[in-house]
Design a protein that fits this description.
Blueprint lengths: L1 H19 L15 H8 L9 H8 L7 E4 L8 E4 L2 H10 L6 H5 L2 H4 L9 H11 L5 H25 L5 E2 H18 L11 H11 L6 H4 L3 H35 L12 H12 L13 H35 L1 H15 L6 H7 L8 H13 L4 E5 L5 E3 L5 E3 L4 E5 H5 L44 H15 L3 E5 L1 H11 L2 H9 L27 E6 L6
Parallel strand pairs: 2-7
Antiparallel strand pairs: 1-2, 3-9, 4-7, 5-6, 8-9
Helix pairs in contact: 8-9, 8-16, 8-19, 9-14, 10-12, 12-13, 12-14, 14-17, 14-19, 15-17
The structure holds protoporphyrin IX containing FE (HEM).
Protoporphyrin IX containing FE binds next to helix 9, helix 14 and helix 19.
Amino acid sequence: MAYLVSMTYQHRARISKLRKQGFPMPDGWSWFFGHSLVLFRYTSRFPPLANIGIPMRELSKEFADTEMFLMDLWPSYPSSIVCFNPEAANLATQKYNLPKPPKAGTSVEPIVGGPSILSFNNSDWKKWRALLNPGFSAQSLMNHVPFIVDCAQVFCDKLRANVGKGIFSLDDYATRLTFDVIMKVTLDSDINYQRHEHIIPTAINTITRWHSFWDPRILLNPIRPIVQRYYGRKMVNYINKELQRRFEELKAERKTSGAAPRKLKRPLSVISLALEDYIDESKDSNILETATLDKDFAAIVSNHIRLFLFAGNDTTSATIVFALHLMSKYPEPCSQLRKEHDSIFGADVSKTAEVLKAQPALLNQCRYTLAFVKETLRLYPPGANMRLGTSEATLPALNGKILPTEGLNIILVHQPIHMNPRIWLKPNEFIPERWLVEPGHELYPPSGAYRPFDIGPRRCIGQELSLTEIRTVLVMTARNFHFKPAYEDWDQIQAQQAGFWTKMIRQFGKEEPNTVYDDRVYQTEKAGTHPSDGYPCRVELVDSKAE
Ligand code: HEM
């Protein structure tokens, strides 16, 4: 207790000193609460499950002159500089390439299980990133396009089965689709989660339901570690068996064909490619006769698979749902999208899957589709970036003040960066053409201001995979389906089904907001910023004659 009091005192004394020196930070800091009450004031303006990036965007409006400010949420979160200045963000991720803070690892440990490239720095990071990179290369991913198309086909079949029927959660459909893809691309497992339940998604969904990066109401729940450990063990058991199986398959292929499977040019998962390098680089000349994988290596590989399932699934599925939502909201860009697909894949929509599977590189010709996806990610960025300040690294605020970073985390919050009115023309409008104009055009994106996958050596390893997946889904759906959000009906159903206490609270308590900037569709705190209430919607077939 005495230790905690002493730590708290030392910590707050430092923030108090920075405050006196004029470090930009919100009013309302206190020795007892730091900025926790300030944050609460902002979060309470939005729905309880709204993503933290949304109140941060609101708070950022007060710091237009500096484009960064300090938030002291210690001890529930390290004190951090919230930065939405593109030039300073570039300094943090490129010039200084600041290390990942310990919090980057500890905050995802219940999900990932232990160390991974998300938390590694220096040589560990270099070694593992180099080992994993080949599986995410553009060339390797093109080999997976036929499988991704098959998954998108199942997604379309499920949508078709819903035409003319009631409300369903598009988010649930998209999450199942991306899970099938990520399991195949990373682990070579074909689990068909779109049609059947499976232990791995059940486990990871349960673990993430009990997870928060910052919210003490979740973090302090004593049941949380028990649930997360139980499901963590289930994941590890499954992954270890699959890993061992892949290892056996690769060894057998080498023995029978004499060549490494990589040279046989069939689609290989991220993990198979990493195991190939492991075999190639092994000092054990008898590796092909070795019965089991090195235990330490297998443990870290297992962490990475868990990391990919977490970092790669929800981010991609949420983006798919927001893209389909924007298609329904903006008829003109939607019609451009369809025209592009007609011209590249031919007017016979029923042949799209066949054409794309035969020529995956056609995806790269879909310039408007890519622009549509990029603009979706600008408005609904699912990630953020966290770095650790150092004694050498200072960040220049917009007003010229030079800010020290030592001992502070730096968080690049993408929502306020992507909608910074100083640098973006019409920041709140959906304009895919921003991504098609030439440099010098007023819509041309400013350097460093667009960073959904972030920029620099540690940019997202899964960027190409996500973009391939999202473009494939748009190509497969845009000419077939209309989506109609059904929030009003959904809210009515929820109100009818509410229990006695919920009804009483609604009747007599303070009504909680359920829109963000008057929009019922918003990003939530659920891992990967899933859309509110899972995006309840109806689907209709596109009437090609009427289009
Ligand atoms: C729309 C989809 C996605 C978005 C917006 C996104 C965003 C991000 C961001 C902002 C970072 C931090 C970069 C930095 O620290 O500089 C990151 C890192 C990372 N992402 Fe993604 N991501 C997406 C999809 C994926 C996928 C599909 C995977 C893997 C299957 C993945 C795996 C990772 C990993 C492993 C890192 C850590 C990279 C490192 O530190 O070397 N992400 N992502």
